[in-house]
C-alpha cells in the first residue's frame, strides 16, 4: 500500500503561482512513477504531469506545458507540482497518483491516489 497526501492548494490570482506537494508513505516511494491529475466540476479527471521513478523523465499535458513543473525528492518521499502563470481554467481539484514505471498519462495505469487538493484561480 502507498498512502498519498496532497497539500499546497488554495486560491491564486491569474498569473500567480502555487506549489503543490504530495507526501507518500508505505511501500518504497522510489519504485513508483508519480503523476498529477486534475478534475474540474462536471468534467472528467485529466492528466497534468508525470515523472519517472528516478526523476529523469517528465511528461506534461499540452495545457500545462511550459507553465507547470513536476519534480520529486525520493529522500523525502515527496513529489511536487510547481504551477506558474496560472489561469482560471486551471481551477480544479488536483490529485497525485502512484503507478508502476512507465505509467504515463492514463489515469487507469495508476494504482494509488491521494484525496485531492483544491486549486482555485480567480481572474
How does this model look, in words?
The chain has 123 residues and is an all-beta fold. It is built from no helices and eleven strands. Strands 2, 4, 5, 6, 9, 10 and 11 form a seven-stranded mixed β-sheet that branches. It is globular. The mean pLDDT is 96.
Number of strands: 11
Give the integer mean of the pLDDT values: 96
Q: In DSSP terms, counting alpha (H) and pi (I) runs of 4 or more, how many helices?
A: 0
The H-and-E topology, N to C, reads as EEEEEEEEEEE
Care to give the gist of this entry?
By secondary structure, the chain is an all-beta fold. The chain is built from no helices and eleven strands. A hairpin with a 6-residue loop joins strand 5 (about 45-50) and strand 6.
Topology, pairings included?
Blueprint: E1 2-7, E2 10-13, E3 18-26, E4 33-39, E5 46-51, E6 58-60, E7 68-73, E8 78-83, E9 92-99, E10 112-113, E11 117-122
Parallel strand pairs: 2-11
Antiparallel strand pairs: 1-3, 3-8, 4-5, 4-9, 5-6, 7-8, 9-10, 9-11
Keywords:
single chain, 123 residues, mainly beta, 7-stranded mixed beta sheet, 4-stranded antiparallel beta sheet, 0% helix
Amino acid at each position: 500500500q502507498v498512502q498519498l497526501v496532497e497539500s499546497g492548494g488554495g486560491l491564486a490570482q491569474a498569473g500567480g503561482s502555487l506549489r503543490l506537494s504530495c507526501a507518500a508513505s508505505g511501500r518504497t516511494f522510489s519504485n513508483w512513477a508519480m503523476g498529477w491529475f486534475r478534475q474540474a466540476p462536471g468534467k472528467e479527471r485529466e492528466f497534468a504531469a508525470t515523472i519517472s521513478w528516478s526523476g529523469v523523465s517528465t511528461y506534461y499535458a499540452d495545457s500545462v506545458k511550459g507553465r507547470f513543473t513536476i519534480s520529486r525528492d525520493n529522500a523525502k518521499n515527496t513529489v511536487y507540482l510547481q504551477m506558474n502563470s496560472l489561469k482560471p481554467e486551471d481551477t480544479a481539484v488536483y490529485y497525485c497518483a502512484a503507478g508502476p514505471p512507465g505509467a504515463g498519462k492514463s489515469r487507469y495505469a495508476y494504482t494509488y491516489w491521494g484525496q485531492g487538493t483544491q486549486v482555485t484561480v480567480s481572474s
